[in-house]
Amino acid sequence: MLKQKRQLFEFMFMASDLLVVTVAWFLAYWFRFLSGVVPIDKGVPPFSHYLSMVLFIWLIWAFVFRRMGLYRPMRGVRRVREIWMLVNANVLALLLFISVTYLFREKSIPYSRLVFVYFGLLATAFTVIQRSFLRFVLRELRRKGYNLRYLLIVGAGKVAADIATRVRLHRELGIQLLGCLSRTGKEKKGPRGIPVIGSYDDLPEILDKMDIDQVVVALPLEDNNRLPDIMSMIGDSLVDVRIVPDIYQFVTLGGHIEEFEGLPVIAVRSSPLEGPGLIIKRICDLVLASVLLVLLSPLMVIIAVLVKLTSRGPVFYRQERVSYDGSRFNIYKFRTMYVDAEKSGPGWTRANDSRVTPFGRFLRHYNLDELPQLYNVLRGDMSIVGPRPERPVFIQDFRKKIPRYMLRHKVPAGMTGWAQVNGWRGDTSIDKRIEYDLYYIENWSLLLDFKILCLTLLKGFRDRNAY
After folding, report:
1. pTM, 2 dp
2. Residue ranges of the domains in the chain?
C-alpha cells in the first residue's frame, strides 16, 4: 500500500513538473517572438519548430529531477533545501537541453538564445511555485488526518523523546506516532508520554499485527549492542527504516552525515562556512569593505588627524588576534589609549579607565576606532560579520574555563556579530557571548549576515559597554 501511494505521488509530481516546464517553453517562445516586447530582426520561426522539442524537454527534466532525488519522499525536508534542489536541477536540465538542441538544430532555423534564457527563468520559477503549492495542499490534508504515515520508535530514551516532540509539533508531516519499544516492555509509558507497546523482542510480532509504515531505531547508547538483532528482526519487512544514533553528547557543532568512499560518516563538529559558502561570504566581504572604505575615507582621515593632535603616539594601534581555524593576525584600530597603556601587562578596559585618551573614549563609545579593520577584511584576516576576535593571551584562559569556547574560531572573526547586536560586547558576560557566537555559527546564512548588518545600522554604532 505504501509503495502504491509513493508511485501515485511520484506520478502526480512528475506530471505537474512536466506540465509547468512545457508551459514555460511555450511562454518563452511567445515572449520572444509574439509579445512585441523584444524586437524581431530575422522573422518569426514556425511554432512547430519549437513544439518538436517538447518530447526532449519531458525526457530531460524527468531524468534530471529523478536523479537529483526530487521524487523521493520529502516529509521533514526543509522548504529551502527543496527550492535549492529545484534550482540546481533546472540549471542542469537546461544545459542538457541546450546540448540536445545544438545536435538537432537546423541551419536555416536556429534556436533563439533569448528563448533559452526566458525558458530557464520561467521553468525554475514555475517549478518552485508549483512544488510550493502542492506541498501546501499536502500539508493541509495531513493536518486534517489524510495521507498519514504510521510510525513506531524502537527505543525509549532521550532520542525517542526528541523524535516524539518533533512529530507532535509538526502535524503537517502527516506522521502518526503509534508508540515505542523499550528494553523490557514493562513500562506503560515512555518519555514524553509515548505509549510503550512492547519490548525489542516483540518487534517481529508487532510488525505483523500493526499497520506500520516507518520504523525509527533510536536506541539509547547503552542498548546499541542490540542493533544487529533489531535489524535482523525487521528482516525483509516492507516498512521504511531510519536509524537515529544517540550521539547528542558528542555533537558540538553542525552535526550531519557525509559519505567517504561509500561509507556513511557522521560529522559531529563542522562549520557551515565551507566550500561555496565561504567563497560567497568572502566575495561579499570584498565588495562591502571596498565600498565602505571609499565612502568612509574622508571620515577616517579626519579621525586620524584628531588622534595625532590630541595625544602623543602613532595614529593606528596594532594588536595580535585570533581568527578562522586559530590563525593569528594583526588587527588594526585607531589608537584610543596612551602609548604606555599596557606597560603593566594586558588587561580589560574598565569604566573611567585612565589609560584611555579623552578623544579615544569618544571613538570607543561609537566604535569608530574599529573602522581600520576594513583593511583587515580586504586582507582576508576578518569578515564583516562574525564573532569578535580575541587576543591569544585571553584565549588560553577562556578555553580552560568555558566549554566549547574554541568552536567560535570555526568561522572568520568579524567586525560585528550576533552577540554584539544583542548587546553582548565589551566588558560583558563571556558565557553569553559564546552562546550567541555558537548560535551564529550553527545557523549561518547570508540572510543572517544581512540581518546582523541591518541591526548594526538600526541600533547605531553607539556602545554602552565601551569605556
Report:
1. 0.54
2. 2-143, 149-249, 276-458
